[in-house]
Specification:
By secondary structure, this protein is α/β, with parallel strands linked by helices. It has helices at 17-25, 42-52, 71-85, 95-104, 107-113, 118-131, 138-144, 163-172, 185-188, 204-214, 241-248, 271-283, 288-291, 309-316, 331-342, 353-360, 384-387, 400-411, 420-427, 436-449, 460-463, 466-475, 479-486, 488-492, 501-509, and strands at 2-9, 29-36, 57-61, 149-153, 175-179, 198-201, 221-223, 256-260, 295-298, 321-323, 344-349, 365-368, 395-397, 517-521, 524-528.
Length: 530
């Protein structure tokens, strides 16, 4: 079969590398297409796949690499709809997710949202968004690749242009599936507004999220396990402890602590500064074993700029502390990453998938819940899965003093939470011994064998709205209107100075009538009430 796999940029394929290889091994042809370049090693990854499977794995760009005349309008309408979605009372406890949408929403939508009848506004914006023509070349691109099935990731970005691919697949009668990229995507990102034939998720938790947050029927959701984590199961370290410690730069091969940095929300406090405080608390411990323990810090590639020359110099003055590691996108960097977890006595972090991977390697995993990082931890839905009483595995504390006591207790033989229940529930829901990658590949093959959906054509009443769309596009080229349409950040910089975005939502979404958030999907509408 021919598989067309589309991602926003090439690094997204990192979490599906094993699936792409499995499909190629089975004789299928897979074309990997990205909307844009990036600088996190993704291009090397896909080129390596193409080199390993000549003729079966190919690589290229999508037409959306070049913006069309309607791109900015469709993006503004989609972001506006995502902003209105966060009127749902469930997002009261996640202010940073709301703020992220607020900051990207055009001023015109923000102004209209303060008026009554926001449910009507949501429907009007949804109708206008559906009436915007698809990016030029999208239909031809999918047809050219003769796709038996279209796979897409992540689809859930605010204002995502990938909706055009889903609509093109519907118009052409091609089977489609959303491949959920990460553990937080269904709860913290945009609405799946155009529902594909199938949604491929890791576990039953994500299956429930697909229903709760996106209204997707259970029969459209496929649970496969977390294929991106298969590589950490049943893996042996590439180096023994002595060799690894020398590679890292430790003076000896003594047991060490591993701190794994996180991506965190944009605008969060500096984690690099926090790591320095964390190290200081370890070095001030009354337990001599903990106080003298070597510490390995793995920076997060998305926040590498935090590690300024001054901070690196300060870190270098602390004995047996090393900042080391890179994004695990090739075999050598993956071996380094695995070995850092495998040889660690314990792993510490705030909110990152490295905590999950450390649980798979079965190391004790700790976190500190501090108010300064609340929005990136307890202020998200997905982080609570790691804390859950039934299946969670994190050993939590609410101060650095309590945290150092926990670590000292571990060194004294104290008990910690088990990782096994979480791994079997969240990572390998079909059983600890059932590898997720072949289950995923089987699912793609089943989707390709399903009857093709009937091609759909644009509704006549949507075509009648095209003059309105043309007028909006033309208006967006007028300088002042352009700023109101497209650049809310620049224009609102001074207006919103000192405004608490969290509280600014409440007047807009309070009251009996406003407790309902209209959630509009392609072809159906549901209302969710508090």
């Amino acid at each position: 079969m021919n598989v067309l796999f589309i991602a926003r940029h090439f690094t997204y394929f990192r979490n599906f590398e094993s699936v792409i290889a499995a499909l190629a091994d089975r004789g299928h042809r897979v074309h990997l297409a990205a909307d844009r370049e990036e600088a996190l090693g993704g291009r090397d990854l896909v080129d390596r796949l193409a080199g390993g499977y000549p003729g079966r794995v190919t690589v290229g760009f999508t037409p959306i690499l070049q913006w069309g005349r309607y791109r900015r309008l469709s993006s503004a309408l989609r972001i506006g709809l995502d902003y209105l979605r966060y009127s749902d009372p469930r997002y009261e406890a996640t202010p940073k997710i709301r703020e992220r949408a607020y900051e990207r929403t055009p001023l015109l939508v923000l102004a209209l949202a303060r008026l009554p009848f926001r449910g009507l506004l949501t429907r009007v914006l949804a109708v206008l968004e559906r009436a915007v023509p698809r990016q030029i070349g999208v239909d031809e691109f999918i047809t050219e690749h003769q796709a038996d099935v279209l796979l897409i990731t992540p689809l859930i970005e605010l204002g995502s242009p990938q909706l055009d691919y889903m609509r093109a697949a519907r118009a052409l009668g091609i089977r489609s599936a959303l491949c959920v990229w990460s553990w937080d995507h269904l709860s913290s990102k945009a609405l799946i507004r155009v529902v594909p034939d199938k949604v491929i998720v890791w576990n039953t938790t994500q299956r429930d999220e697909a229903r709760r947050f996106h209204g997707i029927p259970a029969d459209r959701v496929v649970v496969t396990g977390a294929q991106c984590f298969d590589q950490w199961f049943d893996r042996a370290p590439a180096r023994d402890r002595d060799t690894f410690c020398r590679r890292v730069g430790f003076a000896s091969a003594r047991p060490f602590l591993l701190y794994v940095c996180s991506a965190l929300f944009r605008g969060s406090p500096s984690e690099a500064a926090f790591v320095r405080r964390w190290i200081a608390s370890i070095r001030q411990s009354s337990d001599v074993r903990l106080r003298d323990m070597p510490i390995l810090v793995r920076p997060h590639p998305q926040r590498a700029a935090e590690w300024t020359a001054d901070r690196l110099a300060e870190l270098s003055r602390v004995q047996d502390v090393v900042l080391w590691g890179s994004s695990p996108v090739d075999e050598e960097s993956r071996a380094d990453y695995f070995d850092s977890m495998f040889h660690a006595t314990a792993v510490v972090g705030l909110n990152t998938s490295a905590l999950v991977e450390s649980a798979i390697v079965d190391r004790p995993v700790f976190t500190i819940l501090l108010e300064e990082f609340r929005e990136s931890q307890e202020g998200t839905f997905h982080f609570h899965y790691l804390l859950d009483a039934a299946h969670g595995f994190l050993n939590i504390s609410r101060s650095l003093a309590e945290h150092t006591q926990q670590l000292a207790g571990l060194l004294s033989g104290g008990t910690v939470r088990s990782n096994r229940r979480f791994v079997e529930h969240f990572v390998r829901p079909h059983g600890a011994e059932v590898t997720a990658t072949p289950v995923f590949a089987d699912s793609v093959e089943r989707i390709a064998r399903d009857p093709s959906p009937r091609p759909t054509s644009s509704k006549a009443w949507l075509l009648l709205l095209r003059p309105v769309i043309y007028a909006l596009v033309l208006a967006g080229r007028v300088p002042l209107v352009e700023r109101i349409y497209w650049n809310p950040k620049k224009l609102m910089g001074r207006i919103r100075e000192g405004v608490d975005v969290t509280t600014s939502f409440r007047p807009q979404f309070s009251g009996r009538d406003n407790g309902a958030a209209a959630v509009i999907h392609e072809g159906r509408t549901t209302n969710r009430h508090s």
